[in-house]
Amino acid sequence: MAKMTVDEKIGQLNLPSSGDITTGQANSSDIGKKIEAGQVGGLFNIKGVEKIKAVQKVAVEKSRMKIPLLFGMDVIHGYNTVFPIPLGVSCIWDMDLVQKSARVAAIEASASGINWTFSPMVDISRDPRWGRISEGSGEDPYLGSKIAAAMVKGYQGRLQANNEILACVKHYALYGAAEAGRDYNTTDMSKVRMYNEYFPPYKAAVDAGAASIMASFNEVDGIPASGSKWLMTDVLRNQWGFKGFVVTDYTGIPEMIAHGMGDLQTVSALAMNAGIDMDMVGEGFLGTLKKSLAEKKVSINEINRACRLILQAKYKLGLFTDPYKFLSTARAEKDVFNAENRQVAREISAESFVLLKNNNNILPLKKSGTIGLIGPLADNTANMYGTWSVAALFDKSVTVLQGLKNALGNDAKILTARGSNFLADSAMEHRYVNVHNPTYKRDPRSEEDMIKEALKVAEKSDVIVATLGEGSEFTGESSSVTDIQIPETQKNLLKALAKTGKPIVLVLFTGRPLALKWEEENIPAILNVWFPGSEAGNSIADVLFGKVNPSGKLSTTFPQNVGQVPLYYAHKNTGRPLAEGKWFEKFRSNYLDVSNDPLYPFGFGLSYTTFNYSDVKLSANTLTKGKSITASVTLSNTGKYVGKEVVQLYIRDLVGSITRPVKELKGFQKVSLKAGESKTISFNISENDLKFYNSELKFVAEPGDFQVFIGTNSRDVKEAAFTLK
């Protein structure tokens, strides 16, 4: 740093998007010239060993300081081998598998030259209208914190090997609580809620050693996050001890102009003084910081701080020792989209599926007779992946049809019909579906003709597998909606199929909780597969035919309708609470037209077998500070299949100095039991499990009475009580 000019220091803070340039453009492009001039600290959206090597060569051979570049990418849920969307992965409730998904993603991305991923996204969200709910881990801070830490560890390892990459935790902070579920919108909440409900996953990622943090688009306490010194310095660095660097989101600095914070020079200085270290795409730092320095609007100490943190990250990665550390053509050929990685993806996908309904044990299906496979997602390679699949091989995913064929061989007959498009309106569908993806084609026939064809298939079938729901780009960034039902044209198809009287299994593709009241009342079996990724069809077949017993549990509450949103299990009581199981009572907190109940509660998920929980046993009814007590249940597999159950522990603080939620997740264990087997499942409860941030934002446990709940989801639990002395 002592050898660097101010311009070169500011250059390290600039993160432009290169686009996927060719190797020949590395020198001649505008980006190439900026790199040579020392005006670039890193690039993103470029992939491939040869391309990245050509660009890195410009940095380390032609720029004056020869400082290597960082290469980032939105590797969100896998690289070429794509795992389920993060919301799906969060339903696994197995942190070893969560970490493994990130490990494989890091191995593959680094084999393509990438050394920094803009993941994990750890935003808590309780609003399914928000498109980016698909990218996170759901509504709960405890589960979200465990997943955040596991993902960071999976990506980064010890940051020594050439397959360990920088994680970037996003979006700091509160992005998942945008008003009305509308992307980029205002967020406003009390600090008590921030610290207790929304901050924990960010802090857990920091505690796990996350190397970088990304600022969110929304405002917090009236200031856009990219300009908030309270967020970036007071909380992140001073309270949590974060030692890495902070990058804005795409054009986050210039977007503060539209927020009403000033011109480009003003907002760039605001961001620098707040504690932002790297400017993604906006080039506000590059264009204005030197002028602000001269005018004493920023100090050289702030610029030095940011530059030092960027350089430290490059040292941690080993780029100063070997700028080409991540650029091995041998690894690129061997480590990406191989059979081993795809097998991991297949296993994780099957574990993420949530069985929502299974009347009369329709599932698992028999490998015989005739199966009618119907719906726009039946044979659709493009829409198996879900949003943010930036390196997906769109023609290489296993479709549902192919997966069923692979599982069945000649044992059963499969008849197919498209049945419907995603949406009736072609212009609207164009907005919803990824138009850059050439593998999706709309069917030009009328709705009536498509349903007629589907009914002919249904007539000849013993069972109908209806593959319906959302397309990949129905959720994700800038994909907020006000209607969270299955689109009408698909529902018309489903209603027509239901009238045939044939048994129906709804294989539901979705990136958000949907309002499925009609489906729950009228369709006998519903398997939620989210967007399963590269091995979609194989993993779906594994579960449909019983090779894998589904064990996924919801990480988000499914409402009866959009009018209940936001709906989440860890709500507060009102002064006029409605008694559990009641509806309707005047002058109580309820609706006239629908009960307060969710359609499917947080933590919900069925199995092909059945589980029985004994009553909760406590080792003591009094917990003394500094000690712990044990809460236990006996779990029995009372069905006929081997199965996995996620045993969930919730606690309620009955009296507090501030109001407390009716339940909070405080522990879980995923247990495998053979048919007829029983196990005792125990949880240790200590004072730390009872702590929360009080009105003074002190992290405390308050003496008093507590309820402890253990069960199969947040609603269906056994309970006991204890006192903290």
UniProtKB/TrEMBL annotation:
Residues covered by the Fibronectin type III-like domain: 645-714
Class of the enzyme per the UniProt entry, highest EC level: hydrolase
Key words, A-Z: Glycosidase, Hydrolase, Signal
Claim: Cell cycle is one of the keywords in the record: no
Keyword Lyase: no
Catalytic activity: Hydrolysis of terminal, non-reducing beta-D-glucosyl residues with release of beta-D-glucose
PROSITE patterns, per database record: GLYCOSYL_HYDROL_F3 (PS00775)
Taxonomic superkingdom: Bacteria
EC number: 3.2.1.21
InterPro entries the record matches: Cellulose_Degrad_GH3, Fn3-like, GH, Glyco_hydro_3_AS, Glyco_hydro_3_C, Glyco_hydro_3_C_sf, Glyco_hydro_3_N, Glyco_hydro_3_N_sf
GO molecular function list: hydrolase activity
Signal peptide residue numbers: none
One Pfam family, short name: Glyco_hydro_3
Recorded family membership: Belongs to the glycosyl hydrolase 3 family.
Protein name: beta-glucosidase
Source lineage: Bacteria, Pseudomonadati, Bacteroidota, Sphingobacteriia, Sphingobacteriales
